Amino acid sequence: AMDYRYLGKTGLKVSVIGFGNMTISEKDDEEHLKATIECLKLCKDIGINFFDTAENYGKGQAETVLGKALKTLNWERKDYVLTTKIWGSLGEGQNDMGLSRKHVIEGT
User: Do 21 and 66 meet the contact criterion of CB atoms below 8 Å apart?
Assistant: First the structure.
């Protein structure tokens, strides 16, 4: 059985093992979408409810593919925790990276 722990002081319980999609979802195409869906199904079967991505994985495509996979699976949003990292850069502009309010809002 999967173990769960509280995520800091948020009150959220997350699986001690998470799924990160850096390499499995690096391209927004049918092949990567199918692979991601299969991985997510396996994760659910073993109790993983914590999923992590980042805006600079595949230049943003990993976030898109993970979102499409979750939408396709039609899981209830309350049943999983989704995190992303936004420090990276998707563009060359001065506000396309870092932790400015603008970048954080646009990246979430």
Answer: yes
With beta carbons less than 8 A apart as the criterion, state whether 90 and 60 touch: yes
**If you search the block for the tokens 């805006």, which residue do you land on?**
55
pLDDT in tens, 17-38: 999 998 887 789 999 999 999 9
Confidence (pTM): 0.84
- Residue 97 CA to residue 86 CA, distance in Å, equals 8
| Residue positions annotated with a catalytic role | 57
With a CB cutoff of 8 Å and minimum separation 6, the contacts of 16 are: 2, 3, 4, 5
Q: Are 69 and 40 in contact (CB under 8 A)?
A: yes
List pLDDT tens digits, range 37-81: 999 999 999 999 999 998 888 878 899 999 999 999 999 999 999
